[in-house]
Amino acid sequence: MVAPSLASLGPLDGLLLVDKPSGPTSHDVVAQIRRRFRIPKVGHGGTLDPMATGLLVILLGKGTKISDRVMGHDKTYEGTFRLGIETDSQDADGQVVAEKDASAITAAQVAAQMQARLGDQMQLPPMVSAIKIKGVPLYKLARKGETVERQPRFIHVYRFELLDFAPPDVRFRVECTKGTYVRTLAHDVGQALGVGAHLAALRRTKIGQIDVARAHPLAELLEAPALDGKVLPLAAALPLLA
Fold first, then answer.
1. Lowest mean pLDDT among 13-17, 44-48, 93-97, 133-137
2. pTM reported for the whole predicted model
3. Would you tell me which of 28, 73, 138, 163 could form a disulfide with 24, CB atoms 3.0–4.6 Å apart?
């Protein structure tokens, strides 16, 4: 999509960088911003799961015209996955489906499996996801106990590193292309180690060159009388998304 002419932009045409708390969906945040500030056109530049926190790019006004550019960028996350417990959603929001003793697993084994997942690969999306099959999101089918065939997606993982190992928890950082399911990376590491794993916490720290350090906590934004000084103009945002 072609970016709008910078000469035609108003103060509410741009990006609002939100530090999303755990709990609300990305759609919830969009609705809250639209309602609170009465802005007709509001969107987002890539979802975060409800349990996830961190950088959520909210697109305002003519900023919605660059949604593809925002969503297409590489992402960086930090998080924790827990060994020994597998869930149906591959994260902490799901139901436990298997438990195994992970006490014998070492940091070196975990790091080796993380390194094995670098580079180009095909990833099978989880059933509990927003991907649609014949117009129906997979998570709705999953709630009915259904499992359907999914097409693997091409992804690239640039970095998947061990930050801390406090058994059974593994703290990590991952840098990856759009469409990567971090909880599936965690799940696959657990499967390879033979003990299972699920994503316990996740925080998105960067989209392209936009860092979460520039984001405003959602609660702070919703309490503000206006968005003066908080909207990142497109002229400043576009170089970060080049």
1. 133-137
2. 0.91
3. 28
Catalytic residue list: 49
Chain position carrying tokens 């930090």: 78
Exposed, middle or buried, 69 (CB in 10 Å: 0-12/13-18/19+)?
Answer: middle
Summarize pLDDT for 187-203 with one digit per residue, the tens: 999 999 999 999 999 99
DSSP bridge pairs for 20:
54
pLDDT tens digits for range 82-121: 999 999 999 999 999 999 999 999 999 999 999 999 999 9
Asked if residue 81 and residue 68 are part of one domain, the reply reads: no
The phi and psi torsions of 186 (rounded to 5 degrees) equal -65, -45
CATH of the domain at 202: 3.30.2350.10
Q: What total of structural domains would you count in the chain?
A: 2
Residue 31 domain boundaries: 10-72+209-241
Contacts of 209 (CB under 8 A, 6+ apart): 240, 241
Reported residue count of the chain is 242
Same domain, 116 and 216: no
d(CA 162, CA 115): 9
